[in-house]
Amino acid sequence: MKLIVFIILFVSNIVAFSESLKVGVLQFAPPFSSKSDTTNHYHGFVVDLMNIICQRLHYQCEFVSIPKSGEFDGLDKGILDVTFTPSPITTSLLSDKYVFSLPYLASHGQFLALASDSINTTADIQHKKIGYFKFIFAESEILNKYNPSNTFIEYTDPAELLNALIAKTIDLILINHYAAKYMINMSGTKVKLIGDKIPIGSGYGIITLKRNTELINKINNILLNMEKDGSYLKIYNEYFGRNTYPN
Fold it and tell me: How many angstroms separate the CA atoms of 128 and 138, rounded?
């Protein structure tokens, strides 16, 4: 009888841990998430963060690319169970249909220009062509602030955004502050930050359907525990610490 009980408990634990959680991430948005060209392997800050969350939830993370129709459509159709929103949490995103986790990262915008350009401050950006990352700034108040004197061009791929700047198709980039620092590191001295980082929204959160509120509550507890035990800081420093971004 003891042996039977042990086997039942052992098997149930395996089954529980093997349950898959479909996690929506962007296919190419370094340093947050990227998909390897040759395999289906995802890596990046949110991937490492979610792997720990899944481990503590006793789930197996299954990372899925956020569909072009958006993360909310992916949740509605059951393509995703939870998703890391590429958009900062704002009042326009809040609804009775979805629930957000506690913010796992502060959200800021940042302007970038070519290092060789004469643009050096935000006072110099009037009447310029500004490329922006759609998923972050589509409904941002920043666009409204600068719209009267600038032309904004929407991009859905950070690589295309940087290439457009280098090719001088656009004069500036408006992107997440951390992604901007990453672009500087990847491009060497080709680009530079313009102005200070600009606060937008209430940070970045994990989203799911409202019926999964219990799951989000568990994720919130894990995020708080990760902050206490230092595991969050370890991941943060790996991607955003001084050794990664010395400037």
Answer: 18
